[in-house]
Specification:
Number of domains: 2
Structural class: alpha/beta
Largest sheet: 7 strands, mixed
CATH topology of the largest domain: Rossmann fold
Shape: elongated
CATH class of the largest domain: Alpha Beta
Bound molecules: guanosine-5'-triphosphate, magnesium ion
Number of strands: 7
Helix content: 40-55%
Strand content: 5-15%
CATH architecture of the largest domain: 3-Layer(aba) Sandwich
Length: about 350
Amino acid sequence: MSLVEWRSIPTVLYPQEILDKAFGRASSQADLVEDPDKYHRVRKQMTRMVQSASDVIAKTLNSYVDRWPSLNALSEFDRALVDAAVGCDKYRKNLGTLQWAAERAQRISGEAQTKILRLRDIDGFHKARRHAYGRLSSIIDQISPQILWLGEARGVLRKLPSIDQHEPCIVVAGSPNVGKSALIGALSTGEPQVASYPFTTKQIHLGHFTHRRRVYQMVDTPGLLDRPMGERNQIEMQAIAALEHSGDVLVFLLDRTEQSSTPLDEQKNLLTEVRGLISERPILVVSSKSDLVESEVEDDDARISSLTGEGLEELRSRLIEIIAADQVNDPLTLPDHWPRKDENHGPIGSP
Ligand SMILES: Nc1nc2c(ncn2[C@@H]2O[C@H](COP(=O)(O)OP(=O)(O)OP(=O)(O)O)[C@@H](O)[C@H]2O)c(=O)[nH]1
Ligand SMILES: [Mg+2]
């Protein structure tokens, strides 16, 4: 799975709703049984009720297990987000409990059906059905904390950003208010999506543009890379580490305007820190809000304005260039820096 669609995780029913659905379906199934002989009719009805109730329970629970992304298939970045958002251990354990309960429900149904087959009186059929219903209810009761947890976790997970690991990703960083979201909006085709990281109340913007059929994703880092080291907790550090793996290039915005909310010195300190954290990836430093800065101001950075569009197309081309340099498109072409042996012992295609 390359893209986790957190938004498509299905609703989790409340425990009582699962039981209502199961027993409701079972009753309507019983109504369909036709047999003029009461003894046989009741026996068939009771068997069918137990079976369809447990089927509904098992199917419902298993559908959650199937539709929730498997943690092993997730990228490091997504796993770090899940861990920060709801905890990977709980995620795994609670889904495991649902799977266990689905199996239990099927077993209860099997046992009840065997029992009904052996019984010889109508009263016994009813009793066996009631007994099975009681056991099914108590299984659901027993796992109700897990079901409720999943229902709440879904609400949190749905807001996580979805990044496709197989497409390039541009990470936008900088102090608060420097224009990160505005830049993503300005470079995006269409409206950026809004998501959130589990560690901040701020909204993340996710945008993308297409160039030669590749989708270039852009993602905000509010509250993640914009604070001093000391204030970050371990979970945030984990997400930053993972971000380093998923981002192809980092755009660091500096707001050099008089009105900037963070003094330039502080912004530069942050840049130094981010360079330390994101050591493996190219970092492009860009001055934002150029429309507010007098052109005389000396700085070597590229300058952009998300408001007027100044420098945006140059930035886009530069990003595409940096990302392309990072990839070997033709599998038979070695990158420039690849060590080559002398001609007599050429590595590829030599006799
Ligand atoms: N004049 C001008 N204003 C801009 C430009 N880009 C952003 N702004 C303004 O600067 C403010 C902050 O912009 P955002 O894009 O929200 O900044 P941010 O870095 O995403 O802020 P946080 O998410 O809070 O960290 C907003 O009021 C924007 O309208 C620009 O190019 N020119
Ligand atoms: Mg923002």
